[in-house]
Amino acid sequence: DTEVTQTPKHLVMGMTNKKSLKCEQHMGHRAMYWYKQKAKKPPELMFVYSYEKLSINESVPSRFSPECPNSSLLNLHLHALQPEDSALYLCASSQGDNYQETQYFGPGTRLLVL
Amino acid sequence: AQSVTQLGSHVSVSEGALVLLRCNYSSSVPPYLFWYVQYPNQGLQLLLKYTTGATLVKGINGFEAEFKKSETSFHLTKPSAHMSDAAEYFCAVSFTGGGNKLTFGTGTQLKVEL
Hints:
The complex is a heterodimer. Chain A is mainly beta. Chain A has strands at residues 4-7, 10-13, 18-25, 31-37, 44-50, 53-57, 64-70, 73-79, 87-94, 104-105, 109-113. In chain A, strands 2, 4, 5, 6, 9, 10 and 11 form a 7-stranded mixed β-sheet that branches. A 4-stranded antiparallel β-sheet of chain A has the order 1-3-8-7, with no helix packed on it. The radius of gyration of chain B is 14 Å and the shape is globular. The chains are: A mainly beta, B mainly beta.
């Protein structure tokens, strides 16, 4: 089974709201990723967690705050977002954290910021 | 620097015709190459992956890709297109020294017509 689940599927939030996106995998993968994807564009890497530690932050604004409570769970906390942050947010996981690993993607959360 | 180029942002084929989606990479070290498919409002699904060894890689849904080092290419093909193949296709590369970061191409939208 190569399933990564994400909740919620859709989210609408105002610029002053605080919300969280959740990602879960039960494949025993030790690396987890957050991507942002705008329409008609490839995914852009935001954060990588390796063995529950933040290993890559691609200069993402602080209004996005990742959290990895355990090896199966990854959260993305959102606060004071801007309309341009509206996008599809994808979570992915891989067995390990080297370049040979395949990343498996979840279905995404479609976020609209009003 | 390593990069991926997908020639043709839109490709249109007739149902039953050959599908050919082009991907060229630039890498100073041996790459790992991936093709992902994204159906509307969904996440990315792995079609196939090239690591080392056999240069012809078979994937899911009847797709295959051939790694040609001399041409730095990894084109995706399918002998006979089906309506259900209509989707966005992304070529991606990872490489030693790049950690677990995937570099994506800009994507090719495949349209299948009756």
